[in-house]
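Study both lines:
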Amino acid sequence: MQNPSWNFIQDAIKNIVTHLILTNKNGDYVQCIGNAQELIIEYRVNSNLKFKHFVIGRGENISPLKVTWVVLQTTSGEIMVQQEEILNISDAEIVFEEFYNNNTISGNFNKRNVTKLYL
């Protein structure tokens, strides 16, 4: 759907069953997969035929040696992420609203760069 209202997006987040994606005119997007209690949010920024892809999380950046990895079961299969990257509907509303209004992600969230996984 082109140019959805914020209310439409908010309802889609609240009723998420599997996957939701919101793309801006530059091709940047924010997407989430999962369910109301546990979901993963990703953010992609396009620039000059290049892109950066991030997994969104809460909490402080942790040393890679101390990270707790978890597997989230989705309709697309298993996805392995850090414990701090399992978010909920409230988090999704904040992330999607910030992206909808400002084409960015709130500074209250960490962005783990996973671009190399998509090259």
